[in-house]
Design brief:
Elements: H1 2-23, H2 30-50, H3 56-79, H4 85-104
Helix pairs in contact: 1-2, 1-3, 3-4
């Protein structure tokens, strides 16, 4: 159970650092870069902890899925990114895959 908690937190932090990376302007701004790198480090660390008990493929797919879906949703809400139907359908498919991996996955 803790592995899944670590994984979800790692995925949420992936969203934070992905959005933060946009604010770094190519790592030319100091403080956004420092915070982004810090969130990256914690996200990777929690992913590594989750991988102690979960299959690597499942953990990585869920981590990137949470990051992708979260980043797209927050990009739409906060950054004014496109919200066309095709994009939303594709994000929904990613979300279904992440949920499916959680439902059908067993810890190692």
């Amino acid at each position: 159970m803790m592995a899944w908690i670590y994984l979800v937190i790692a995925g949420i932090l992936e969203v934070v650092w992905a959005l933060g990376m946009k604010q770094t302007e190519g790592f030319t701004r100091l403080w956004p870069s420092v915070f982004t790198l810090g969130f990256m480090a914690v996200s990777f660390y929690l992913l590594a902890l989750a991988m102690r008990d979960l299959p690597a493929g499942t953990a990585y797919a869920v981590w990137t899925g949470i990051g992708a879906v979260g980043t797209v949703i927050l990009g739409i809400l906060w950054l004014g990114e496109p919200r066309d139907a095709a994009r939303l359908i594709c994000v929904s498919l990613i979300l279904c895959g992440v949920i499916g991996l959680k439902v059908f996955s067993k810890a190692a």
